[in-house]
Inverse folding.
């Protein structure tokens, strides 16, 4: 305890009062808040790229014949929109921006556990994004749809699948490293007395998201490697003409793809929980149940991928089993949905205030 | 396209209404809970708004009965949805035994339809009203999806696999047919028509009364020609390879000691990848026909082998259909 008190008095060499603001201090920063800002700038850029693609699509649909862009361009636009929004905007949005910014602040730590690794995550993310954008600018884009279904992507597509898949492959490692960083930070760097069940719910949702990052992202990375090997070297994994099975690709893709859905929604649920707690000035109603629900959702999310394949010709029995698990994961999700009104009811002091 | 097409909202199959009842039941549940939650949020936010003297509330404890309630009630609703949905899903997945079989081959970007008697159609499926129809579907290139919204059914058409879809049309008319799985540049143009006819009209159409075009030969007869053309008989009628008489639908013993049911998928695999399953007592000497036979030709060969199952019960001599 006395050691902790002593440490409070020691200022780091660089802190917010004497920090400089040149571009180098941004590009070489290991400060979690600055890295959050770097992510914010990057995802905002990608948001506009994905948004521009969506705008072109919608403009093309103004009239039924769609004479603004060619069908092949239209297909590239919705693929670009899907891939950018999923891999380069939504997945890193709340975890990499708000997570990086808030996790150390919320647990009372100076920074995340591995600040340099944190910066490396951002560079890997940017490298993945650059390779992906190369496929768009130099290669004319990719027209497989965001799911890269084989054998369309591996054999039949004439667009730039290789560099798009490579971009997705690279950027996945950014999420893996971020997840690792968050898990270690939350485990080891909580302030004295900040036990697990005193953590803000946002941290529980970040913890659950990080688990999904380190379990699901390697699967999409492997899948992209197999896809590239088949497309470039004609290894027969997925194309039946080469001896492969296209359904195998769907199993691999959705084993990543469904947990990814929870990467997108769990952080948002965490944000809502935090807003309710803050503005009603008390702990969210049924805190423990919500905390467990976050982790339960993350765990169950790995057992439901087959519900993306009900019409793919998967067997009747696997369809039924995956349907059952999909309903099972709905129950912890309901715990989130019914939470806000009850929190407000028992809070009896909510943020709404008008002069009366 | 013969007639003004019906809207996709029309219920034109025996399955459509059952499916739609479940759909609206679920939509009803979602609307009920969405309205409930959002009105409560609004109501409590106003009722318990922050006022002087109400700046911070005393802490509250967890409320176990409430937690249990909103675990058990959604779980019960989920069980109802699951059982209801699963029973429909099972029904949709198991074609009735006597269903009329029609073959569908998808390729970028068209649908080829083959009727058992040899009639063919492009992007048009003709079916009689009130008769169960089973579609056996294959793809020559990428994954497609055969979807008829007015029937509320769809199924992927996957290269390397056979998938099946069945329905009983309940209303004559012309309905939209779509490819529902993005399959490349002209995916949006991979559309067609399902034409549901009175049985008499359908029989007349099948016998050459109208539409489509056909080689005149039944599927099995076309298959018998291929059987000769590719010299299958050199082995399969001489004892070097297994005979096909009575094979279709039977249980075949393999060298591995396992058994397999001789269905469409098994025959297809044995043509394209002959060494995958070797019949007991034979050696893996058959070459692959991958790349030499189209999915349509494989369907024709299968129809030929199927016809041998019934033709000849006593001898080993292959009876020509």
């Amino acid at each position: 305890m006395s050691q902790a008190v002593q440490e409070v008095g020691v200022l780091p060499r660089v802190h917010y009062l004497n920090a400089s603001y040149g571009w180098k201090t941004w590009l070489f920063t290991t400060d979690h808040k600055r890295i959050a800002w770097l992510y914010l700038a990057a995802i905002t850029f990608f948001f506009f790229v994905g948004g521009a693609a969506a705008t072109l699509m919608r403009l093309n649909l103004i009239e039924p014949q769609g004479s603004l862009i060619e069908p092949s361009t239209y297909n590239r636009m919705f693929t670009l929109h899907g891939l950018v929004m999923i891999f380069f905007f939504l997945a890193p949005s709340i975890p990499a921006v708000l997570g990086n910014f808030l996790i150390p602040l919320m647990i009372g730590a100076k920074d995340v556990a591995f600040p340099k690794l944190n910066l490396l995550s951002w560079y890997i993310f940017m490298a993945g994004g650059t390779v992906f954008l190369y496929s768009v600018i130099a290669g004319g884009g990719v027209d497989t749809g965001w799911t890269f279904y084989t054998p369309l992507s591996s054999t039949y597509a004439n667009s730039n699948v290789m560099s798009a898949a490579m971009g997705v492959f690279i950027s996945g490692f950014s999420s893996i490293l971020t997840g690792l960083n968050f898990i270690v930070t939350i485990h080891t760097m909580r302030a004295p007395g900040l036990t697990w069940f005193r953590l803000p719910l946002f941290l529980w949702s970040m913890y659950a998201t990080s688990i999904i990052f380190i379990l699901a992202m390697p699967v999409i990375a492997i899948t992209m490697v197999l896809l590239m090997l088949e497309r470039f070297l004609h290894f027969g994994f997925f194309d039946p003409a080469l001896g492969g099975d296209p359904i195998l690709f769907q199993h691999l893709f959705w084993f990543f793809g469904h947990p990814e859905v929870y990467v997108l929604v769990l952080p948002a649920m965490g944000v809502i929980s935090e807003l309710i707690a803050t503005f009603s000035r008390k702990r969210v109603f049924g805190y423990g149940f919500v905390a467990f629900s976050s982790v339960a959702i993350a765990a169950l999310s790995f057992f439901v991928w087959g519900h993306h394949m009900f019409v793919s010709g998967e067997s009747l029995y696997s369809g039924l089993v995956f349907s059952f698990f999909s309903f099972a994961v709905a129950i912890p999700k309901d715990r989130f949905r019914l939470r806000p009104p009850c929190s407000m009811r028992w809070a009896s002091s909510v943020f709404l205030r008008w002069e009366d | 396209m013969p007639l003004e097409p019906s809207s996709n909202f029309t219920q034109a199959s025996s399955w459509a209404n059952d499916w739609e009842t479940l759909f609206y039941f679920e939509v009803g549940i979602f609307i009920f809970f969405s309205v409930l939650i959002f009105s409560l949020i609004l109501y409590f936010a106003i009722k318990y708004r922050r006022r002087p003297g109400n700046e911070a509330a005393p802490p509250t404890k967890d409320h176990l009965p409430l937690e249990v309630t909103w675990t058990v009630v959604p779980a019960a609703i989920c069980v109802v949805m699951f059982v209801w949905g699963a029973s429909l899903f099972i029904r949709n997945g198991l074609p009735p035994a006597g269903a009329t079989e029609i073959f569908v081959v998808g390729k970028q970007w068209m649908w080829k339809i083959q009727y058992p008697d040899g009639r063919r159609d492009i992007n048009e499926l003709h079916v009689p009203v009130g008769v169960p129809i089973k579609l056996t579907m294959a793809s020559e290139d990428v994954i497609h999806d055969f979807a008829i919204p007015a029937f509320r059914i769809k199924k992927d058409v996957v290269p390397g696999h056979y998938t099946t879809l069945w329905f009983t049309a309940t209303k004559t008319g012309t309905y939209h047919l779509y490819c529902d799985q993005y399959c490349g540049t002209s995916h949006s143009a991979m559309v067609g028509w399902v034409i549901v006819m009175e049985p008499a009209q359908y029989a007349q159409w099948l016998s050459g009364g109208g539409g489509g075009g056909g080689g005149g030969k039944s599927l099995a007869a076309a298959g018998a020609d291929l059987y000769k053309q590719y010299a299958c008989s050199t082995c399969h009628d001489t004892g070097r390879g297994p005979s096909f008489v009575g094979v279709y639908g039977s249980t075949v013993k393999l060298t591995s000691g396992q058994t397999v049911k001789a269905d469409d998928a098994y025959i297809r695999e044995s043509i394209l990848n002959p060494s995958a399953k070797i019949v007991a007592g034979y050696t893996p000497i058959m070459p692959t026909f991958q790349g030499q036979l189209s999915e349509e030709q494989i369907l024709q060969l299968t129809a030929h082998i199927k016809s041998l199952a019934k033709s000849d019960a006593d001898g080993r001599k292959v009876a020509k259909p």
Residues 101 and 234 of chain B are 30 Å apart (CA to CA). The longest strand of chain B covers residues 100-107. Chain B is about 35% helix and 20% strand. Residues 219-311 of chain B form a domain with the Cytochrome Bc1 Complex; Chain D, domain 2 fold (CATH 1.10.760.10).
